[in-house]
Amino acid sequence: MKVKKLILLFLLVAPSFFYAGVVHHTLISITEQKVLGHMFKHVMTSGGAEKDEFFIDGYAVPKDNYTTEFERACRKEQEDQAMLQQEQLRARLQFADVVQVEIAAKLLNKLLHQTTQLLHRINNPALEKFFVFSNNTIESSEQLLQLKNFTQQLAPSVQKKIANNDFEGLNLLYTKLENWPTRLEKFFQETVQSAIKKSDDTVMLKELLKLVSELS
């Protein structure tokens, strides 16, 4: 709502036989308020003749009509403003949700790629007989197989959660997976060290050398 107020002062001089002139003070106050595209104008005249005039979009209207329409327009403007603020809030929240999901998905996909690469490196038939299982890395061949199956099923699950804007679901998957790269890396290193100690086979040693060189 835009408000503009203008006050005008007129000095009217009338001739007189007894005095040099009679001065009349006329004060005119004009208030204009634009609400919902409509101009509401109130003209107050005081001085010689006091009167109030009311206009809507340039047309003179009775005071009651002016008051009713002005209050209705103000209420409607407030309602529209409140609705706009709610829509803006929903848009901000929706944007925040989308960004959260995008970031969570990117972090999870990066972690999944890292885990998959490590599993691929470990999944070498030449290394299998030298596996060193422990509670700090991989506890058993069954656990290793379960981890492989889990990562294989994870990709479609991630896409589904992205489509559903399921930030909590993505975050839960990340939590389940986040410690595995470190454990797999340690498992691989201990397995390679075990193979070096236990094997004298030239082919095997060359294979180990190749595996280690790929890490650098």
Report on this model:
- By secondary structure, this protein is an alpha+beta fold.
- It has two domains: 2-89, no CATH class; 92-213.
- Residues 9-18 have low confidence and may be disordered.
- It is rod-shaped and about 120 Å long.
- A five-stranded antiparallel β-sheet has the order 1-2-3-4-5.
- The chain has helices at 63-122, 125-128, 141-163, 167-177, 180-198, 202-213; strands at 2-14, 22-35, 38-46, 51-56, 59-60.
- The chain is built from six helices and five strands, in the order E-E-E-E-E-H-H-H-H-H-H.
- Helix 1 (63-122) runs antiparallel to helix 3, helix 1 runs parallel beside helix 4 (167-177) and helix 3 runs antiparallel to helix 4 (167-177).
What characteristics describe this protein?
single chain; 216 residues; alpha+beta; 2 domains; five-stranded antiparallel beta sheet; rod-shaped
Brief rundown of the structure:
Helices cover 60% and strands 20% of the residues. With 216 residues, it is an alpha+beta fold. It folds into two domains: 2-89, no CATH class; 92-213.
Return the average pLDDT rounded to an integer: 84
Structural class: alpha+beta
Regions with pLDDT < 50 over 5+ consecutive residues? 9-18
* Fraction of residues in H or I helices: 55-70%
The largest sheet, given as strand count, sense and whether it forms a barrel, is: 5 strands, antiparallel
The outline comes out as rod-shaped
What is the overall number of helices? 6
Q: Give helix and strand order, one letter per element, not per position.
A: EEEEEHHHHHH
Beta-strand residue percentage: 15-25%
What is the total domain count? 2
Question: How large, in whole angstroms, is the Cα Rg?
Answer: 41 Å
The total beta strand count reads: 5
User: How are the strands of the biggest sheet laid out side by side?
Assistant: 1-2-3-4-5
Cα-to-Cα separation, first versus last residue: 68 Å
